[in-house]
TrEMBL record:
Residues 57-100 are annotated as: Disordered. Residues 76-92 have a biased composition (Low complexity). Transmembrane segments: none annotated. GO terms for cellular component: membrane. Pfam families: FG-GAP_3 (PF13517). PANTHER family: PROTEIN DEFECTIVE IN EXINE FORMATION 1 (PTHR21419:SF23), PTHR21419. It comes from Streptomyces sp. NBC_00119. This is FG-GAP-like repeat-containing protein. Its main location: membrane.
């Protein structure tokens, strides 16, 4: 299935409460009749509808009743820019530093960028090719790749919006559009939700022998951003677009009110339009089905002729599904919302001739149509139909005679909702069986089990069934098999896995999949994989030689290929998604620094710096690591004078050469590897690698462990470490930091870099001004620098998470003598999990946290300044004429400020670069002209949540935006 859930949120507050709970729903009574048949109230149906659906676009809310929806304030506010041309500028001098010495505002210009893929993805074979395939990502990215994964062409949001040309309706709305949402997904409860099995299709419309790709994408609806499009009266809608399969260029595109189903049938594009979904559609419009035939010339498709079938209905009418039948026929269904329990005109099933739109037959009944499948061997159209949940929670599998439309009920299930139906041969008798995935519920109407049931295609008798029960630790919705595929006598089931849904790694069941291959004759499990191993909804079977394979895109945007028999992974291809950690270094020898970055997928990507400055994204190489990339640092680990890249890669630490070759893999032993620190610990001219997890460990560049330090307490997590004076400084905190019954072991320490023996350990710190000590700040916890004006240049900062005298969460930073551990100075620290980074400059040592810059001045004074804009991380950058600026980055881009204002209490924006969905950055002189460039990056939201969870906390800042890495120049 291919459908879309479409709710998004702008910037939300960080959830920093201990023991973070993201959803807590009270039990509700199940409404039932005298026969024990479940039925739902409107409130119950709405609640279940919002939960029991795929969320391909990774949104945090769901629109289920479009005509009653209104935009949230957060969805309509905000400033941005046209995609691909990030906004930048200077602030009125009156709002910056006063006086004649105020810094001049540089011109900030966006040059090159690379957009990351986001959202769930499916792959589609390119028929007639040598194994090529398309990838379709729910958030507006489409790519053609060769069988070995090489990119042939790609289209992203930037390129699509440039052609669609959709300025915001008014300055009230964001200039920058949100990601286009390609229709994918399924809502198991509500047949009137804007979802569909038919959001994309392939077929040759140009006559060149290469299948073209058609898709429909929702634009402007959620988050709400109404637009202007030519003389159209629509301010939100769906764009149906045809891409040339050979080149990826747009052949044809058109705005519809609510086209959520498309199909290519015998060179006819069939579009089902449901205006009811669109709040800007005229109430005089109606739900229609249109067939379009094209002429092709000069690289474009133009309409040659068309036909339209009109339902005559607007409110409460919605198309459901399209299924090609062969011979120029297509089956289609639409639903009309029931107004009475005895209404027999809810579901409408029709067969059309696409040549002229004539109806071969049609059938109407009291059930809603959800899916249609062809069983040519039996001359049937097999349908999945459901009752209105206000009447009963039940579904039927029915057949329609292909010639006459006569309807026969094959199977009826009560107190269950159907998720997917697959019609395919799984017993080798050349006639298909009917396999269905269904969910059942507990007394609080949460999914307590999913069952895959295989039925005999002749009499619908049950052949076998496989039930997956809800995880024992889960009291909410359990696992659901969202997609079934029949191939080579087997059923491939793609599940959304509920294991650990209360934990950050799979928060809300957002990351883990469960891919199972079941034997077709008895339903036994051939093999199964769980975790970040597959899509939660799609796995594409394909032949490679004589063998069957499965291709699937996991939730971290890695394309994986498995053997159908046995499940051995054949390959993994990380796709560039969000990038949130990067370093600058010349890797191709052209004298220009390049950008080496990583993030959501298991890939490290090197981009040509010179090309980026010229406005183009040129990939030099990519390397595969074991998991998400949480941090990249440069270090010369072999002493040859050239830095390598050391990567904290979720489950391991990886060393990569400047040429992109993986040199060393250091397994994390089951621990979460989220940060690394490097430095020469023993004076041998080679940098060692320090990895803080459950212990503090040091490795050489070949991955050999040099030493391991164990905290004088159990069940702890080590925070980010720092290196100076031949010592490693670190902190640790309890993994039960917020458990009132735990001992909450917390400490700070210094160990010898050469052997890991303790120099000093404070296992019972008592930060000044804290009513209670909770734990250690994890990110940017320690920082050692000779620039601190304390301890004769041997000072180190350590950062604590505390409760203040009002019992509120807060932070404390201590400056200690690195030689003895003695506390020299105590200052206010960052809020819970809000610590950004440390850096040095001529004026001293800076610490940046959410909204705040602190300076430990070279003059011995301590300063604190609040930024007028949103910042989370910072650094000094060199602008034109050698002028130094303080850059602060947040979710909407970055501000340039006067470093001198760090001593005045307020930091005002001098200039800015807007890029929604950013937060991290790296800066440096890419081209050697003496002026720094700023590389805007995204934010490791899942990683930060997992880091907070190491001490029993949680962190969430949902944000809907197109995700890209962008290079900004200063002039």
């Amino acid at each position: 299935m291919n459908k879309t859930s479409r709710r998004g949120v702008r910037l939300a507050s960080a959830l920093v409460t201990a023991g973070l709970v993201l959803c807590a729903v009270p039990a509700v009574a199940v409404a039932d009749d005298d026969n024990g048949v479940l039925s739902l109230t409107d409130t119950q149906a709405k609640d279940l509808s919002e939960r029991l659906q795929l969320d391909p676009a990774a949104n945090t809310a769901q629109k289920t009743d479009p005509q009653h929806a209104s935009p949230d304030a957060d969805d309509t506010a905000g400033a941005g820019t046209a995609t691909g041309a990030p906004d930048s500028g200077a602030t009125d001098p009156g709002t910056t530093a006063s006086g004649a010495d105020a810094l001049a505002a540089p011109k900030v210009t966006a040059s090159g960028y690379t957009e990351g893929v986001t959202g769930m993805a499916a792959t589609v074979p390119v028929a007639g090719s040598d194994g090529d395939y398309f990838t379709v990502h729910a958030r507006g990215n489409l790519t053609r790749r060769t069988a070995d994964g090489k990119q042939v062409w790609t289209r992203d949001n930037n390129s699509l919006y440039k052609e669609w040309d959709l300025p915001a309706l008014s300055p009230r709305y964001s200039k920058e559009p949100y990601p286009a949402q390609i229709t994918m997904g399924f809502n198991a409860v509500n047949p009137f939700a804007p979802t569909s099995d038919n959001g994309y299709d392939t077929g040759d419309l140009t006559g060149d022998g290469v299948p073209d790709l058609v898709f429909t994408a929702d634009v402007g609806t959620y988050p709400y951003r109404p637009f202007v499009h030519g003389d159209s009266t629509l301010h939100t809608g769906t764009f149906v677009t045809v891409l040339d399969g050979a080149s990826g260029k747009t052949l044809w595109t058109k705005l519809y009110a609510g086209a959520y189903q498309v199909a290519l049938v015998d060179k006819t594009l069939v579009v089902a339009d449901t205006p009811y979904y669109n709040t800007s559609a005229s109430t005089s419009s109606t739900s229609t089905l249109t067939g379009i035939r094209f002429d092709y010339a000069d690289g474009k498709l133009t309409t040659a002729d068309s036909w339209t079938y009109d339902t005559g209905q607007f409110k409460g009418a919605a198309w459901s599904t399209l299924t090609p039948l062969g011979g120029g026929l297509v089956a289609a269904s639409w639903n009309k919302r029931k107004t009475t329990a005895t209404d027999t005109t809810a579901g409408h099933t029709l067969v059309f001739d696409v040549a002229d739109g004539s109806v071969k037959w049609q059938s109407t009944n009291s059930l809603y149509s959800r899916q249609l499948h062809l069983d040519a061997s039996r001359g049937r159209l097999v349908a999945l139909e459901m009752a209105d949940v206000n009447d009963a929670v039940e579904y039927e599998i029915v057949s329609y005679d292909l010639k006459t439309g006569d309807r026969t009920t094959l199977d009826k299930r009560t107190n269950a909702l159907a998720i997917d139906l697959e019609v395919g041969d799984i017993r080798g008798d050349s006639k298909p069986e009917y396999t269905v995935s269904e969910d059942t519920f507990d007394e609080s109407i949460f999914v307590n089990a999913n069952t895959v049931r295989a039925l005999d295609g002749s009499d619908a008798s049950v052949l076998w069934q496989r039930t997956v029960k809800r995880d024992p630790d889960n009291t909410l919705d359990g696992a659901t098999a969202w997609n079934l595929s029949a191939v080579d006598g087997k059923i491939v089931a793609s599940y959304k896995d509920d294991k650990g849904l209360d934990y950050a790694e799979n928060r809300g069941a957002s990351r883990f999949a469960r891919l199972a291959v079941l034997k077709g004759d008895n339903g036994a499990v051939n093999w199964e994989k769980r975790g970040v191993v597959a899509s939660q909804a799609w796995a594409q079977p394909f032949r490679q030689g004589k063998e069957w394979r499965l291709r699937t895109v996991d939730t971290d945007q890695n394309i994986r290929v498995y053997n159908l028999d046995g499940g051995k992974q054949q390959s993994i291809l990380p796709v560039q998604s969000q990038l949130w950690s990067a370093v600058l270094m010349d890797v191709n020898g052209d004298g220009t620094k390049d950008i080496v970055a990583g993030g959501q997928s298991s890939g490290v990507f090197a981009y040509d710096g010179a090309a980026m400055l010229a406005g183009k994204a040129k990939l030099l190489w990519q390397a595969t690591v074991p998991g998400q990339v949480h941090k990249i640092v440069k270090a010369d680990v072999d002493g040859d004078g050239t830095d390598e890249f050391v990567v904290a890669a979720d489950t391991a630490t990886t060393v990569i050469s400047a040429q992109g070759k993986v040199k060393t893999q250091i397994d994390g032993g089951g621990q979460f590897v989220w940060t690394v620190t490097t430095g020469d610990l023993n004076g041998d001219g080679k940098d060692e690698i320090v990895v803080p997890t459950d212990k503090l460990r040091a490795y050489d560049g070949r991955g050999k462990q040099q030493w391991a330090y164990t905290a004088p307490a159990d069940n702890v997590a080590f925070a980010e470490a720092s290196i100076a004076d031949g010592q490693v400084y670190a902190q640790y905190g309890s993994r039960d930091a917020f458990d009132v019954n735990s001992g909450k072991p917390t400490g700070a320490l210094a160990v010898k870099g050469s052997n890991g023996t303790a120099v000093w350990v404070d296992s019972a710190p008592k930060p000044e001004g804290a009513a209670g000590l909770i734990g250690a700040q994890m990110r940017a916890a320690t920082f050692a620098s000779s620039k601190f004006p304390y301890a004769d240049g041997h000072a180190v900062a350590v950062s604590w998470l505390v409760r203040n005298e009002k019992n509120n969460l807060g932070g404390v930073t201590e400056i200690r003598d690195g030689r003895t551990g003695k506390v020299l100075k105590t200052t206010e620290g960052a809020g819970p999990w809000q610590s950004g980074n440390w850096f040095t400059g001529p004026d001293g040592v800076y610490s940046v946290s959410t909204g705040t810059v602190k300076l430990y001045g070279a003059d011995g004074q301590y300063y604190k300044a609040s930024a007028t804009g949103e910042i989370h991380t910072g650094g000094l950058v060199t602008g034109p004429n050698g002028v130094s600026y303080l850059a602060g980055a947040g979710q909407t881009g970055f501000d340039l400020m006067d470093p001198a204002q760090a001593k005045t209490g307020w930091l005002y924006r001098i200039a800015y670069g807007n890029m929604l969905g950013s937060r991290e950055f790296v800066s440096g002189d890419l081209d050697g002209d003496g002026v720094d460039e700023i590389v805007s990056l995204n934010f490791d939201d899942t990683g930060m949540d997992r880091v907070a969870e190491l001490q029993d906390g949680g962190y969430s800042v949902p944000y809907t935006a197109i995700r890209q890495m962008t290079v900004f120049t200063l002039s």
